[in-house]
Amino acid sequence: MNPELLGRQIYILERLSSLPRKILSLHGNENISELVLHELCRQECFNIDRAAYFIDNPDFDCLKGVVGHCRADFSPEGDGDVWQDPQGFGARTKESAFNKKVRGFTQESAFKRKKGEKETADLIAHELDLSCHGFYSWQMKHDNHGIFIYERAPDHDGADYDKFLPEGVMLLGFCPVF
Asked: What is the C-alpha separation between 163 and 111, in angstroms, rounded?
């Protein structure tokens, strides 16, 4: 195995394994989803330019955007350790045009209407102007469904570490939703 790829995989696994501790350390904070999403999108992690997290709740017949992250909406120098200033990062995220678009997205439950996952992801991607997107969908507690839609950075190398993305994305399901 390529030593550079192995090093990157180890780095990503270290980042992912630290997230549960970070999530618990900010218990009660309203923007934990933003922090987790930012961490997953970082160039050093999965190198994602734009990503959005949705929850589909068939019981309440609602598919709702929770948070969106767009790298272009943040400082090119990076935001440092956002976990040290969660309120400041949350305020910057609230001002992000992409995040506002995601949070404003609401429609009837796709799962209640038995729409396919790909069809639902394509619809959301079209609404968010994501041209070349990937998605993950997973079962959550209380019969909810998480949907994660993303657009890669142009310099993404397509390496083998993407197999860890579902494990990271599912951590969003442990974040409180406000």
From this structure: 25
Whole-structure pTM over 0.85, yes or no?
Answer: yes
- Domains of the chain, earliest start first: 3-174 (3.30.450)
Residue where the block lists tokens 């943040």: 74
pLDDT at 76 over 60: no
Tell me the residue type at 34: E
